[in-house]
Amino acid sequence: MKLIPRSCARAGLACTLTAAVLAGTGGCSASQASGTGTGTARAASPGGPATSATGPTRVAVDMTEWSVSAAPAAAKAGPVTFAATNRGADVHELVLFRTDLDPSRLPLDEEGAVDERGAGVELVDEVENVQPGQSKSFAVTDLGPGRYLLVCNLVEGDHRHFHNGMYSQFTVS
Ligand SMILES: [Cu+2]
Questions:
Q1: Tens digit of pLDDT for each residue in 107-118?
Q2: Which architecture, in CATH terms, is 54-172?
Q3: What is the whole-number distance in angstroms between the Cα of residue 161 and the centre of ligand 1?
Q4: How far is the CA of 88 from the centre of ligand 1 (A)?
Q5: Looking at per-residue confidence, does 155 or 7 come out higher?
Q6: Span 97-103, average pLDDT
Q7: Where are the domains of the chain?
């Protein structure tokens, strides 16, 4: 379920500036990943990811029934690319949420999936419909410090993938 335009999540600096202008309109939730209320200051700060000489941190995320594992499980703030590989037999997806909530306290929708618009969670980006054996990736231009969860949020009948254990915590410092 895509709630924010992918181009917005990937637009980085331009997106942050736009969001600062649009503050209060909900125009770009990606800016919140960079620190709510400080978008303008961060956008103006030197040494941002655009000048990084080391390139994005690459996180390999393995998904199977029923687990999600990320290596590494932490990263420095800045550009981070998540490469999700489906090593299971079912179709999966990978959603990156920013949240301080314990996984047991995440808001759920009526199907038992994590409520992607729920209080206390912010959807950062995702890849959907990852077939068995397939890898898909997404790049976050400027992932801010905080606590995140990598979740497979699929629900197929009785199989609520998140409920079955398909999540992993991820920390950005
Ligand atoms: Cu899944």
A1: 999 999 999 999
A2: Sandwich (2.60)
A3: 5
A4: 9
A5: 155
A6: 97
A7: 6-49, 54-172
SS (H, E, C) the chain: CCCCCHHHHHCCHHHHHHHHHCCCCCCCHHHHHHCCCCHHHHHHCCCCHHHCCCCCEEEEEEEECCEEEEECCEECCEEEEEEEEECCCCCEEEEEEECCCCHHHCCECCCCCECCCCCCCEEEEEEEEECCCCEEEEEEEEECCEEEEEECCCEECCEECCCCCCEEEEEEC
Gap from CA of 7 to ligand 1 centroid (Å): 25
With a cut of 80, say whether residue 41 has pLDDT above it: no
pLDDT value for 53: 60
Cα dist from 41 to 21, 37, 58, 131, 144, whole Å: 13, 9, 26, 41, 13
Cα 147 to ligand 1 centre (Å): 21
Q: How far apart are CA 98 and CA 61, in angstroms?
A: 16
- Which residue type does 85 have? T
